[in-house]
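Hello,

Our lab assistant flagged a job as stuck in the queue for most of the afternoon. It eventually completed. Since we weren't sure the result was trustworthy after the delay, we are filing this so someone can double-check. Below is the sequence as submitted and the structure that was eventually returned. Let us know if re-running is recommended.
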Amino acid sequence: MNFYPGFDIEPVAEPMGFRYGTDVFGPEPEFRHLDAIRPSLRNPECTGPDIVYAIAMDVGKTKHQELLNRLHLLYGVVTYAGGQLGEEPIRSQGHIHAVSPLSGLSTPEVYEIWDGEAVIYMQEYAADDPGRCFAVYARPGDVVVVPPSWAHATISANPQTPLTFGAWCDRQYGFDYKGVRAHKGLAWFPLLKDGQLQWERNPLYLERELVCKAPRIYDDLDIRQGLSIYRIFEEQPEIFRYVPQPQLKINVWENFIP
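-- returned structure --
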């Protein structure tokens, strides 16, 4: 990988998944198949790899397992296949994080790119008016935060280089697909044309501008540049309490810019 996330883990391709170091815990990966994500694609009948990505929810250093449970935190890792989904890049389903039983709120997610090129697409709402829409372009070592209640998807921007990333999540995570599927996808579709990523508006939403940008510095969320988000947790475990309890940063989520 082009980035060391702070613990001994490595994505593998055959079969798709992860190799864990001797001091690292993690489950057998789950696979997301093309048929499962077709409702979110511009062309649901497209061809592409059968296994679109592998996901392992709840990984980390063995010595932190009890602490992570106590803090209601979960570290998830995902690796994508190479290739394309028809004219679209490899990508996740569009969704909103479900309301957490712990906080009674939808929860944020803190992404960190390990390998490949990513775009984290997000929009304020999964309603007819999607609100503000952002496409955040990220490379290894970049951090991108998705705020509570926003609809979003993670996109591989380079079909030649599989994408791998990690993320801090609420331990009682869940996904709400209803609004996105009702609109047959998110408000903007990513398309690959001549190897370049372009965007096409979804006509089932009201027209809204798409802002394409680099990740910002998240000082207001206590994320330090040059240090992996797992190392930040390791040094100060309480820092990411706002992931399962977003009310702790309520002022940050108002008029949020990723």
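-- support follow-up --
The delay was a queue issue, not a problem with the job. The result is valid. The two ends are 25 Å apart (CA to CA). The chain has a mean pLDDT of 96.
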